[in-house]
Amino acid sequence: MESPVPGRPARRVRGAGRGNGPPETVAPRPGPTPFLPCSYGFRPGRRAHDAVAEIRYLATRPRSYEWVVEGDIKACFDEIDHTALMGRVRGRIADKRLLGLVKAFLKSGILGEDRQLRETNAGTPQGSILSPLLSNIALSVLDEYVAQRPGGPSTGRVEKARRLRRGLPNFKLVRYADDWCLMIKGGRSDAEALRDEIAGVLATMGLRLSQAKTLITHIDEGMDFLGWRIQRHRKRGTTRHYIYTYPAKKSLKAVMAKVKTLCRQVEVNQPLDDLIRRLNQAVRGWCAYFRPGVSSATFAYLSHYLWQTVWRWLRRKHRRTTWKELRRRYCDGGWWPHGQRELFDPEKLSTTRYLYRGANIPTPWPAT
């Protein structure tokens, strides 16, 4: 029996085939499309760097998607409408037992600090392995709307050029979980109109845009996305302008606060190795994330702050010891502290350029 929909088995009607005629088949309901390429969060083979590289690629000439709607959804994981979400899940899954498990998961409730179980009538429980998938399913309504709209990713090259001649915008979406940016090739008024449309689309899933945090910016003004600052600058010594990606100030302040907190948590009666071990774990991971970017100046600043903070810790540990003695004991006569292990120096870490993969990112679904 052949299925009328490629890739899906045909469904036999109960009682069909008992007479002389051929058995009847009913095609499965066409459900929503799989996750689209604009979605990067919680998907195999994709990462935050791919989303940042996509924004940089779109903003670079000759593509010139220069206006950006920086979206911020209020309490995304807490306000997803269960009815709308289950409707999208049923579009892909027909097994009632599995649907019952998903619904039971959503309605399982939250155990508070006061040991009281509270009902959950909206949202997905955070911290579970299923919540990222369900949030992606809910937010895919935004991906599909942008993909199907005229001027979106499905619009051909000739039609896009025709739209620009008519003063109509073209746009593309880049989304990582509930963080998303709409890249627009047009004007500010086009960005404002699209922002209002997206607010209506998200409302169908019970979600709201934050009016205060949803910003419309030009790429020359810069934007923060997934911890990165993405902005077009003039290259030093030239008249050419390029898109640069480097750690945002908020991200730098966060890791500096982490360093300061660790130096307070580790008591001065503990050996220096305990402090260095904990600092290296925090700083190495942060630098590894921001290594594929223009991060050398930020790493140098962080290196100086790290050195300064550790030295203050050593001065508290040995209040009556001279600088010369501390350098001999902890730096072998130099200035960079170490014990049995060496304190990680961000300034010595070389930066790289992340390879833009675009359509080369593998996807588990065949192209349709």
Automatic annotation (TrEMBL):
PROSITE patterns: RT_POL. Residues 1-230 form the Reverse transcriptase domain. Keywords: Nucleotidyltransferase, RNA-directed DNA polymerase, Transferase. The keyword Transferase applies. InterPro entries: DNA/RNA_pol_sf (IPR043502), GrpII_Intron_Splice-Mob/Def (IPR051083), Mat_intron_G2 (IPR013597), RT_dom (IPR000477). Residues 1-34 are annotated as: Disordered. CDD domains: RT_G2_intron. GO terms for molecular function: RNA-directed DNA polymerase activity. SUPFAM superfamilies: DNA/RNA polymerases. The keyword Metal-binding does not apply. Signal peptide: none annotated. This is Reverse transcriptase domain-containing protein. It comes from Polymorphospora lycopeni.
